[in-house]
Amino acid sequence: MSKPTIALVAHDHKKPDLLAWANANMQRLEQCRLVGTGTTGGLIAEQTGLTVQRFKSGPLGGDQQIGALIAEGELDALFFFWDPLNPAPHDPDVKALLRLCSVWNVPVACNRSTADLLITSPLFLSLDYQREVPNY
Predict the structure, then answer these.
(1) What residues does each domain of the chain span?
(2) Which residues of 21-38 are buried (b: 16+ CB within 10 A; e: fewer)?
(3) Which residues are catalytic?
(4) Does the annotation place 36 within a ligand binding site?
(5) How far are the Cα atoms of 12, 51, 64, 72, 121 from residue 30, in angstroms, in the given order?
(6) Residue 38 counted as an annotated binding residue
(7) Residues with Cβ < 8 Å from 18, sequence gap 6 or more?
(8) Where does substrate bind (predicted)?
């Protein structure tokens, strides 16, 4: 089985939180194929040394590119540190991305506590666990 693919995304005010979390979880993240939106993916790659496939910036279509991975069954988890206190101009894209996670039963963490629980779960990198994918 190939490495799980996870997406790393953060709004501007949450980028420091995601970077701190990524640094604290490098050992597990190294075992994954990482994708991310443009700025976030670049910061993570620069500051951790992890390899991150970068898509466009979120407001320029990066959220939708990650959504396409979900729709194609190619994303295993989304770590999206979003900022509920600062409205984003691409809020409809953000909502669509989170909606796709629910539609396709993709695990999503929107804050550090949930991200910690998800990445430290014994099921996270387990070859025995298969997420149930709805058959629409």
Answers:
(1) 5-119
(2) bbeebeeebeebbbbbbb
(3) 63
(4) no
(5) 24, 8, 25, 23, 16
(6) yes
(7) 8, 9, 10, 40, 44, 79, 81
(8) 11, 15, 37-40, 57-58, 90
Q: How far apart are CA 32 and CA 87, in angstroms?
A: 31
pLDDT (tens, 9 = 90+) of the chain, 136 residues, equals: 589 999 999 999 999 999 999 999 999 999 999 999 999 999 999 999 999 999 999 888 999 999 999 999 999 999 999 988 887 777 888 899 999 999 999 999 999 999 999 999 999 988 788 899 999 8
User: Which CATH number is correct for 5-119, 3.40.1370.10, 3.40.50.1380, 2.40.100.20, 1.20.1530.20?
Assistant: 3.40.50.1380
Name the residue type at position 102: S
CA proximity to 25, closest of 97, 129, 130, 124:
124
**Known binder of ligand: residue 62?**
no
On whether the pTM is more than 0.90, the answer is yes
CB–CB of 9/80 below 8 Å? yes
